[in-house]
Amino acid sequence: MTNALKSKLAIDQVDATFILYLGGAVTSLFFSLVINKHNVLLKFELSDWWMWASGCIGAFYIFFMFIAFPKLGVSVSILFVFLGQVVLSVVIDHFGLFGMPRHSISVTKAVALALILTGAVLIMYDSQKGV
Fold this sequence. Notes:
Blueprint: H1 2-9, H2 13-35, H3 53-72, H4 74-95, H5 107-129
Helix pairs in contact: 1-2, 2-3, 3-4, 4-5
């Protein structure tokens, strides 16, 4: 949908990312007002700066997907995202980052990560071959 927006409006990745996140922000504010019956923006000052990083990370994600899809293909691009999320989730669990409870990495998790990485390499190899 975002590429269709980009083509229809003849805009670049940065503008399309902005429009995408503006739509998401308006929708989220609507849900906050209707469901929670309060404006979450009033609580902005109570949060730490790093808690807002997920929005920035999301914007970078969308922006770089615009770049990655045509060059790497959708499957390889999404595979890298999945691989990054799995590896980061194991790191967050292991060290108990962001206030999460600690769950140490186990041999099973390490083997699972190795299998996912192997799958990623095979998919990238297949994509490079053009099969």
